[in-house]
Amino acid sequence: MKIVRPIAELREARRSAAGSVGFVPTMGALHAGHASLFAAARAECDTAVASIFVNEAQFGSAADFASYPRDEERDLRVAEDAGIDLVFAPTAEELYPPGFRTWVEPNEEGLEADFRPGHFRGVATICLKLFNLVRPDRAYFGQKDAQQVEVLRRMIRDLNLELELRVLPTVRDADGLALSSRNARLTREERRRALALPRALQTRDPGRARELLDGVDVEYVAVAEFEPRVLVGAIRVGNTRLIDNVPLEGEDA
Ligand code: AMP
After folding, report:
1. Nearest to 22 by CA among 210, 163, 117
2. 3-state SS, residue 221
3. What distance in angstroms lies between residue 142's CA and the mean position of ligand 1's atoms?
């Protein structure tokens, strides 16, 4: 597995990549959810590329960005074990040099966009930059972040990007909690409370879900007309914000 940091080296590695290229953008703190995306890229493409970059532009607060879990040594092992050929792990200075001021504004509204102003602008901008650098044939994302998938699908269409978006099912722990880098911050008691979210969403009924979340700090629970339609929810447990969704139609419903 090759690891590159400067953009110039990434471009060089891309030029010599054989056949079709699959790409998995991540912010590190890798878990089995990321590994499932790596495995799909490995299985479906000749060259599997991952990026590890904690993108400050998509964080709402400096404190959340600063406390985001980081363990690059471990991440590189996870990527290598999953058969990734090339990891792009750039510095912030490389991707956002002084004078940077061109942004992708997806104009997304509702749900995450309301609770995290500017989040999808940060996501769309970094994804377009990474797509331009890696030039993948297919890019892999998790259904866990259903609204992110919607925003990226629209960006790909609106800006005529030539790549296939592949979306993989949410990977969960045995207790039902969707894997997330942020789960590491939960105390045992907080984790117990967090389980209310997947349990509520699995009813596939917004009214019933809200009842089951009585006493929990809920930001939203709603049916979203995404592709596929989903029951989505976001809660706060202590200092941690958790999101999850359950498809209401299609294979996973
Ligand atoms: P992140 O590192 O949080 O930016 O996530 C990188 C990619 O992994 C995104 O496409 C996420 O949707 C995906 N992902 C995160 N958690 C999960 C999960 N539990 N199951 C499947 N994919 C996930």
Report:
1. 163
2. strand
3. 5
- 165: nearest Cα among 178, 176, 151, 175: 151
| Dist CA 205 CA 222 (whole Å) | 9
Active site residues: 34
pLDDT of residue 253: 80
pTM: 0.98
H or E element in which residue 220 lies: strand 217-224
Contact predicate 85/1, CB 8 Å: yes
- Cα-to-centroid distance, 178 and ligand 1 (Å): 10
Our answer on whether the CB atom of 171 is closer than 6 Å to any ligand 1 atom is yes
Question: What does the pLDDT look like over 99-125, one tens digit per residue?
Answer: 999 999 999 999 999 999 999 999 999
Element (H, E) at 193: helix 188-194
Nearest-CA residue for ligand 1 atom 12 is 142
d(CA 161, CA 175): 38
Q: List the one residue out of 125, 174, 173, 156 whose CA is nearest residue 227.
A: 156
As given in the structure block, the two tokens for residue 58 are 């998509």
* Ligand 1 pocket test target in 126, 141, 230 with most atoms within 8 Å of CB: 141
- The alpha carbon of 40 and the centre of ligand 1 are apart by a number of angstroms equal to 13
